[in-house]
Specification:
Blueprint lengths: L1 H15 L16 E8 L2 E2 L7 H9 L9 E5 L1 E2 L1 E12 L2 E5 L2 E15 L5 E14 L2 E6 L9 E6 L3
Antiparallel strand pairs: 1-5, 2-4, 3-7, 5-6, 5-7, 6-9, 7-8, 9-10
């Protein structure tokens, strides 16, 4: 019974060890144009450079900066989508045009912020932005080995 169970469980693993002799999509490399789309969910934030005066103010506060308004950037989710147009130039070289649009919201957190009522609160400022990117890429492809290949992509990306 145990031998039969071991044989049934090991059969798929033994089958996977066989060398693949058939190409997946053998005519794929011969097509002139390939196209598609992509979706992404990036995390974005501002890079805030604090001035030396701000750093000195925090260092001089004996309470460790508790009475001073602190400004920090927080990570915020975004959404990015676009199209892919791949054109074969030569056997090992492709050009890609990948236009996309990104919708971002970046958050800045102000802690110990005095309010008009006299209270001290933490206030979040959300800044929304939309970016359009029109990158052009070159893709150098190595020779296909059965169903895999190495490639290198370089690009110029005005945003």
């Amino acid at each position: 019974m145990f031998t039969l169970l071991a044989l049934l469980l090991s059969a798929p693993a033994l089958q996977a060890q066989k060398k693949l002799n058939t190409l997946n999509k053998p005519d794929y490399d011969q097509k002139l144009i390939h196209y598609g789309f992509y979706l992404a969910a990036p995390l974005t934030r501002y890079n805030i450079d604090h001035s030396q005066e701000y750093a000195d103010q925090l260092a001089a506060d004996p309470s460790g900066g508790e009475g001073t308004t602190n400004v920090n950037a927080k990570f915020s989710p975004g959404f990015y989508t676009g199209l892919v147009l791949n054109v074969r130039i030569a056997d090992n070289l492709d050009a890609r045009f990948v236009p996309g649009v990104g919708f971002y919201s970046r958050k800045i957190e102000f802690t110990n912020m005095p309010q008009e009522t006299g209270e001290i609160q933490t206030v979040d400022k959300v800044i929304s932005s939309t970016m359009v990117e029109l990158p052009v890429l070159l893709k150098f492809k190595a020779k296909r080995r059965t169903n895999a290949r190495m490639y290198l992509v370089g690009a110029l990306s005005p945003a």
